[in-house]
Design goal:
This protein is mainly alpha-helical. It folds into 2 domains: 64 residues, no CATH class; 36 residues, no CATH class. The protein is built from 5 helices and no strands. It starts with a helix and ends in an 11-residue tail after the last helix.
């Protein structure tokens, strides 16, 4: 399945922006923990079809904004990629210099990327 296309189409559905705004308004009214968190706070929440994960994501975003966080680092997984430089950089069978040449464009880009260590 092409998830990127799926998510793109999902965000283009009629009424989806209204649905997201509704979830954010509901989340803003919810009583969530008001305890102080230091800068090492970690949240984990699902990323799947918006009807399943949207309400929970709205609660997390709303809480972060209300708690005054100025910076959030979002980490995620790359479920496989069709982008050639990603495939080259993560190909454990490729020669090291080829892997590094594939990694170089990723390091210059704005796209988050993690090269998993070989075992």
């Amino acid at each position: 399945m092409d998830w990127k296309s799926y998510y793109d189409e999902e965000l283009r559905e009629a009424g989806i922006r209204d649905k997201i705004m509704h979830w954010l308004r509901v989340a803003d009214k919810m009583a969530l923990s008001s305890s102080k968190n230091d800068r090492r706070t970690v949240f984990s929440f699902p990323h799947t079809a918006i009807d399943y994960s949207g309400p929970l994501q709205a609660r997390v975003v709303s809480w972060l904004v209300r708690s005054g966080f100025k910076r959030v680092i979002a980490l995620g997984v790359m479920h496989g990629s069709l982008i050639p430089v990603h495939r080259t950089a993560t190909n454990e069978l490729a020669p090291q210099d080829e892997r590094l040449s594939g990694l170089a464009p990723l390091l210059r880009s704005q796209e988050p990327f993690c090269l998993q260590p070989s075992s």
